[in-house]
Amino acid sequence: MERRLEVVLDPRNDELRRVVECVSGIGSEWSWAVAEAFESEADLASASRDDLEAVPDIGEKRAASIRERVAR
């Protein structure tokens, strides 16, 4: 719960969520899950596909799409 509150209050997560929401098939629910799992865009960019798949409900296809997006 504490981490979720930090995610909501930290303005850096807005940018992280915007990046993730640019991926087709990723909406606000999943972007919040990603923001909760990763502290920054740099953390997200260095995340492996397995790291992304570990985020609840992201799965293999969404993880691949997110990795492709943040690699740009």
From TrEMBL:
Gene3D superfamilies the UniProt entry points to: 5' to 3' exonuclease, C-terminal subdomain
Matches recorded under InterPro entries: RuvA_2-like (IPR010994)
Domain of life: Archaea
Protein name: Helix-hairpin-helix domain-containing protein
Organism, as annotated: Halorarum salinum
